[in-house]
Design a protein that fits this description.
3 helices; globular; RNA pseudouridylate synthase; isomerase activity; isomerase; mainly beta
Length: 237
Amino acid sequence: MTGAKDVSGASQIPILFEDNHILVVEKPVNMPTQEDDSRDPDLLNVLKADIKHRHNKPGNVYLGLVHRLDRPVGGVMVFAKTSKAASRLSDAVRTRHLDKTYVAIVHGKPPQPTATLRHWLWKDTRTNTVSVVKPGQHEAKEAVLDYKLLGSQDGLSLIQIKLHTGRPHQIRVQMAAIGCTLYGDQRYGSAVNKPGQQLALWATALSFEHPTLKETMRFRSLPPVQRPWSEFAIPEL
């Protein structure tokens, strides 16, 4: 399914699909998925307020968060509007039946045009940073993704990425581990990125089984037509 509409009210979050059970939206860049220490407006609470406004709902609005995107990442996300939908979508995430595809622009060119990356990642909660460690290290978790090179020019490459696990900062850390730091990544690529550059990572496709209709739902979202995205032809995956 494609296309988007801006919701009424204050939120102005593009909605890709909505019914009684799910809400699929395009997350803006630099908005937290849920409330964090910054206390900036977050997507979850903005959407709750918008549903309350648009549907004139009394009391608290239920909206279940079943997966996340890092703050600087934009693109397609699904939320659950009922507890039944939340349970079934969370199970789809756990069993890897919620398929997520991203596009990213990285510095350099990966060593192979297509490959599966497997790393063990450990998160330092004090600094909110993730690093590649030896297999089996205490509290480390295996991270797996597939990538495909879509094009290269002027020292940059456009990469398609399919996640098999959903670890914090996974794409950013795994691509940096093979020498392909993401464009604009200040946290894991300060040596090659300039302050103020926007992270070039976009959640471009999402598919899952509808929690009640049992139909396969597919959604797409393309990154904004601005540099560095405008330097490449972004395929509609």
